[in-house]
Amino acid sequence: MYWLITLMTLGIVGVIATGVYMEMLPDKGVSGRRWFKPAIGGNLLLFVGAQAALILFGVQDVMAAVETVGEATEISVGMGLGIIGVGIPTAFSTLAAGVAVGPIGAASLAVLAEKPEIFGRTLIYLGLAEGIAIYGLVVSILLLDKI
Fold first, then answer.
1. For the whole prediction, is pTM greater than 0.90?
2. Which long-range contacts (CB under 8 A, 24 or more apart) does 104-110 make?
3. Which residues are CB-contacts of 120 (< 8 A; sequence separation ≥ 6)?
4. For the chain, how big is the Rg over CA atoms in Å?
5. How do the residues of the chain divide into helix, strand and coil, expressed in percent and rounded to 5?
6. Which pLDDT tens digits describe the chain residue by residue (147 residues)?
7. Which of 89, 67, 91, 88 is nearest to 77 (CA)?
8. What do you get for the CA distance between the two ends of the chain, in Å?
9. CA–CA dist 96, 131 (Å, integer)
């Protein structure tokens, strides 16, 4: 199990290192580098493959674990996976809200420069985009109640 987590960590570290490389040396670019696209593809393939294997082997380990009654202080692997699963809707909905609020905020600022009287409408649109994150939080709270 630990080797799968190590593979996933190496995939993430590779993608982060590539991002740091691109941030530090933006003028050199990566268009002339033949190794760049295969390296990114290899890191992503390594991460996705290790994650799929972790799910496959992790579910079997969780199903094979004997459930103990009376020990509420220790968190099992199944409980940990359940808590991670509860956090996923909030994470994805927050990312989606951030993607939605960025262009809407920029467009509303551009419109407010020309017509300041429609400030209320732009706030409504921003609120609707931010509501996506609230929906994910509500789903996570409802799932947390089921654990």
1. no
2. 104/129
3. none
4. 22
5. 80, 0, 20
6. 676 677 777 777 777 777 777 777 766 655 666 777 777 777 777 777 777 777 777 766 666 556 666 555 677 788 888 888 888 889 999 999 989 998 998 999 899 889 989 888 888 988 888 888 899 889 989 888 887
7. 67
8. 24
9. 10
